[in-house]
């Protein structure tokens, strides 16, 4: 569910006409609904109310400071994967005690910064990383909390690029190695291995792979406890799927109904790391038609937004529903490929899509762009990154300015011998 809808043929975000924003901001831009983001967070919170989990928004999905602040104000924590995300999380006002840190390649500097920020937990992805955290924590004379990210060897039935819980994936530690690590925990005096973490993938629409993975975690944790190890935190990751086209994903309540019974009578602090579920449907990518090009077998709508702005279609073949900002009441329907201005054949936002006839100057929105949209964008083809706008009720604010040409060269230097 989301807060983009037509009224009298005009697309609105909450109470603001999207065309009015486009007129003020120019295209392309990302448009976010405060209400959709916070409602989705609150849906998970409510569904799991009986166990009061820590819900850490996976900020790789959407790292805008205003978005983060909105969620943190509602009680969210943040799931980070880099020193840069730690920096932004702190700027957004997230207390260290609500930050968990995943990622397979944490550097010494990133580890030290996270220790100094008093984060809740490192999600450790390998034994060399654990040894490194021990070394850095020792240098800083600190003791830090760690969850071992285990790889349960589960196929989450999603796109290969976003499946992380299969045994051949680069993420996490296999159960035997994890067990051995608990047995050797004395080797890490500056580390308390007090949690387990599992994240099997993204855009998972069915509860079954989650349940399978969590059962494996529970069997493992039970055997650890029998051996005398104490587990305080179970981080169950993110991955909840959303509707892009005709998916029928589980709701937060349905997910909780499947998951909560598994943990009945257990006293772990549960942690979740949803990204897409909170942000995905709360964002629209707005772009304008530059040219309509009729080729032998196709109509191309060439728009001012490209794969550098919204990478998901090119990267995963992802589907985003197209919503013209003004709905035609009559006229014919046409089949289009919506393509960008980038010099790559892979630069498309949609293919073979039947929509109302488009003309140069028409603006359209691509739905489902609130997660892994702006965060994956780049300056490829020397294109300044687009603006981000947040709507709350009847107001809208630019929460990231459109970059300028000057921004493209800000950090570049021509050596003296070339001058
Ligand atoms: C460790 C971890 N947690 C959470 C997430 C968020 O996943 P999603 O956006 O599917 O909820 C990811 C995504 O890649 C991840 O790698």
Automatic annotation (TrEMBL):
Keyword Amino-acid biosynthesis applies: yes
Pathway: Amino-acid biosynthesis; L-lysine biosynthesis via DAP pathway; L-lysine from DL-2,6-diaminopimelate: step 1/1
E.C. code: 4.1.1.20
Keywords linked to the UniProt accession: Amino-acid biosynthesis, Decarboxylase, Lyase, Lysine biosynthesis, Pyridoxal phosphate
UniProt GO MF annotations: diaminopimelate decarboxylase activity; pyridoxal phosphate binding
Gene Ontology terms: biological process: lysine biosynthetic process via diaminopimelate
Chain ranges of the Orn/DAP/Arg decarboxylase 2 C-terminal domain: 33-370
Binding site for substrate: 276, 312, 316, 344, 372
Active site: 343
Cofactor (UniProt): pyridoxal 5'-phosphate
Modified residues (N6-(pyridoxal phosphate)lysine): 60
InterPro entries per UniProt: Ala_racemase/Decarboxylase_C, DAP_deCOOHase_LysA, De-COase2_C, De-COase2_CS, De-COase2_N, De-COase2_pyr-phos_BS, Orn/DAP/Arg_de-COase, PLP-binding_barrel
Positions that bind pyridoxal 5'-phosphate: 239, 273-276, 372
Domain of life of the source: Bacteria
Record bears the keyword Protease: no
UniProt catalytic activity: meso-2,6-diaminopimelate + H(+) = L-lysine + CO2
Domain Orn/DAP/Arg decarboxylase 2 N-terminal intervals: 37-279
Family recorded in the similarity comment: Belongs to the Orn/Lys/Arg decarboxylase class-II family. LysA subfamily.
HAMAP family named in the record: LysA (MF_02120)
Chain's role: Specifically catalyzes the decarboxylation of meso-diaminopimelate (meso-DAP) to L-lysine.
Binding partners and assembly: Homodimer.
Name recorded for this polypeptide: Diaminopimelate decarboxylase
Native organism: Candidatus Abzuiibacterium crystallinum
Protein encoded by which gene: lysA
């Amino acid at each position: 569910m989301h807060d983009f809808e037509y009224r009298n043929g005009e697309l609105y975000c909450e109470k603001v006409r999207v065309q009015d924003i486009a007129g003020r901001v120019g295209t392309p831009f990302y448009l976010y609904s405060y209400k959709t983001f916070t409602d989705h967070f609150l849906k998970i919170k409510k569904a799991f109310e009986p166990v009061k989990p820590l819900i850490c928004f996976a900020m790789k999905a959407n790292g805008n400071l205003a978005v983060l602040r909105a969620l943190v104000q509602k009680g969210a924590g943040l799931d980070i994967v880099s020193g840069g995300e730690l920096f932004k999380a702190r700027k957004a006002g997230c207390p260290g005690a609500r930050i968990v840190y995943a990622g397979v390649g944490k550097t010494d500097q990133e580890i030290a910064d996270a220790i100094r920020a008093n984060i809740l937990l490192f999600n450790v992805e390998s034994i060399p990383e654990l040894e490194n955290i021990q070394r850095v924590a020792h240098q800083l004379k600190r003791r830090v909390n760690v969850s071992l990210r285990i790889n349960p060897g589960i196929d989450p039935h999603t796109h290969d690029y976003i499946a992380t819980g299969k045994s051949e994936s680069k993420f996490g530690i296999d159960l035997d190695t994890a067990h051995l690590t608990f047995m050797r925990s004395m080797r890490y005096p500056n580390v308390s291995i007090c949690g387990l973490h599992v994240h099997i993938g993204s855009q998972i629409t069915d509860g079954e792979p989650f349940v399978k993975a969590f059962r494996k975690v529970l069997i493992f944790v039970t055997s650890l406890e029998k051996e005398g190890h104490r587990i305080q935190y179970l981080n169950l990751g993110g991955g909840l799927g959303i509707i892009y086209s005709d998916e029928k994903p589980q709701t937060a309540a349905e997910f909780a109904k499947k998951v909560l019974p598994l943990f009945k009578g257990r006293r772990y602090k549960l942690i979740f790391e949803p990204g897409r579920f909170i942000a995905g449907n709360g964002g629209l990518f707005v772009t304008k038609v530059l040219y309509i090009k009729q080729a032998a077998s196709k109509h191309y709508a060439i728009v001012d937004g490209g794969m550098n702005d919204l990478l998901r279609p090119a990267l995963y073949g992802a589907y985003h529903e197209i919503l013209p900002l003004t709905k035609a009441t009559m006229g014919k329907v046409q089949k289009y490929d919506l393509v960008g201005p980038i010099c790559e054949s892979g630069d498309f936002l949609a293919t073979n899509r039947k929509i109302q006839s488009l003309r140069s100057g028409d603006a359209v929105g691509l739905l489902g762009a609130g997660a892994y949209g702006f965060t994956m964008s780049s300056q490829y083809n020397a294109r300044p990154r687009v603006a981000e706008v947040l709507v709350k009720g009847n107001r809208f604010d630019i929460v990231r300015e459109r970059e300028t040409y000057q921004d493209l060269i800000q950090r570049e230097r021509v050596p003296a011998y070339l001058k």
